[in-house]
Amino acid sequence: MFGLIVAALLFNCAAFMTNKRLTKNQIIHIWTFTIALQNIVDLYLSTKYEAYWYFTKEIKWESFPARVVLIPAVNMLFLSWYPFRDSLSKRVVCFISFWILIVLYEASALLPEPWGYLRYGWWNLIYSALSYPFLLILILKYYQWICRVESYKP
To answer: What residues form the membrane-spanning segments (predicted)?
Structure first.
């Protein structure tokens, strides 16, 4: 639990203190989208199929921070730091670097308590590493869509 609290505090502080790009409206959209997507995925992979879980297989309040405040802050960091207008090579380097950092963070979340909070059933780090590029692209596309909707004038 200690590791989850520390990570949630650090990621949220970093996300809100370093944000120079995202508007309040975009932050609300990113948080809502992330929480909804994560909980839908967790409902099936964690609860129904027991692929992974937070702390224990049961649904408990101690897993609430992992489901609600951790990943939205990470997505804010990614979108705040992503070089949208830079060269393709800089965007690829940023994307791959963030991908590697997320996989390394997940590996650290697998540590025993009090640092770790994530447990695997049949899931493994390879599955996560393979899914993260799709999730990062999804959050990039969602953000770009939000920007287009905000600039739309009927």
So the answer is: 64-84, 91-110, 122-143
